[in-house]
Amino acid sequence: MGARGAASVPRGTRDPGAHQQVSHPAPVTPSFPYKLVATDLDGTLLRSDDTVSARTRDALTAATAAGAAHIIVTGRAVPWTRHILDDLGYDGLAVCGQGAQVYHAGEHRLLTSVTLDRQLAGIALAKMEAEIGPLALAASRDGLDGEVIVGPGYVVQDGPLPAVPFTDVAELWAAPLNKVYVQHPGLSDDALAAVAREVAGGLVGVTMAGEGIVELLPLGLSKATGLSLAARRLGAKAADTIAFGDMPNDIPMFGWAAHGVAMANAHEELKTVADEVTASNEDDGIAVVLEKLLG
């Protein structure tokens, strides 16, 4: 907000000898150039111990005090995100499940949800397996309490996140899903994602969200679609948004936002399209950028 000029004097008859009072300009208040700060969760906002540093908390608090809204945009579905948001004391909107879900953390309420066409997903998996052989599978079921179900051979990352094993592939399709996770015993994540896009990209969306996490999504769904829905609820636009991320699943979000910031620990594919690269999630990369913008 710029400084105000001298106060205007009302028109009319004045005493020529009267001293005109002139107000001094108001102090200049640094303005924050964005209305929305969108942050990925793992590898971006969270450090490796699943905490947020005091410096990053303070920078986000200062940005919101300057008029911006902070929104978390994560690949995790709501059941795998909710406990972290509660621990952080976060009560705003969160975009979860790669954009499939818009969740109100303060009200513990799911506002929107998009599910995967299970028939198309089944065809996509068949095409992939015809090309590269058997896959290890897992899936995220829809809803506030949707389970993550894990099939034989699928490697789940260490941590407290609950998963339910299954042995019969029919169980994979027994309830509505947000996404299917795929792993291959011989291919890297990048190679597996490339094959999935080549043979099944017309049926499902494909993204890589982290180490060992290649996902099949509803076609056309991305973090950008979920973020745009949430931003509309907050009265913000793409031109008002700065986004932070670390993995290829953040590329659509960077394409939508006015300014995309990759962490130092980010995947090279994301760094290539970022407007800026900051410090790592362990070194307060979000705070580094916000503090500079706040002046």
Topology of helices and strands:
Layout: E1 36-39, H1 41-45, H2 54-65, E2 69-73, H3 82-88, E3 93-96, E4 101-104, E5 109-113, H4 118-132, E6 136-141, E7 148-150, E8 164-165, E9 177-183, H5 189-200, E10 205-210, E11 213-217, H6 223-234, E12 241-245, H7 251-256, E13 259-262, H8 268-273, E14 276-277, H9 285-294
Helix pairs in contact: 2-9, 4-5
Task: Please tell me about this protein's structure.
There is one protein chain. This protein is globular. Strands 5-4-3-2-1-12-13-14 form an eight-stranded mixed beta sheet. The chain is of the alpha/beta class and 295 residues long. The chain has nine helices and 14 strands. The chain has helices at 41-45, 54-65, 82-88, 118-132, 189-200, 223-234, 251-256, 268-273, 285-294; strands spanning 36-39, 69-73, 93-96, 101-104, 109-113, 136-141, 148-150, 164-165, 177-183, 205-210, 213-217, 241-245, 259-262, 276-277.
How many helices? The count is 9
The main β sheet shows up as: 8 strands, mixed
Distance between the termini: 14 Å
Q: What's the mean pLDDT score?
A: 89
- Structural class call reads alpha/beta
Coarse morphology? globular
Q: How much of the residues is beta strand, in percent?
A: 15-25%
N to C succession of SSEs? EHHEHEEEHEEEEHEEHEHEHEH
Strand order of the largest sheet: 5-4-3-2-1-12-13-14
Count of extended strands: 14
Low-pLDDT residue spans = 1-29
State the helical fraction.
Answer: 25-40%
Rg over CA atoms, rounded to whole Å, is 24 Å
Entry summary:
The protein is 29% helix and 21% strand. The protein has 295 residues and is an alpha/beta fold.
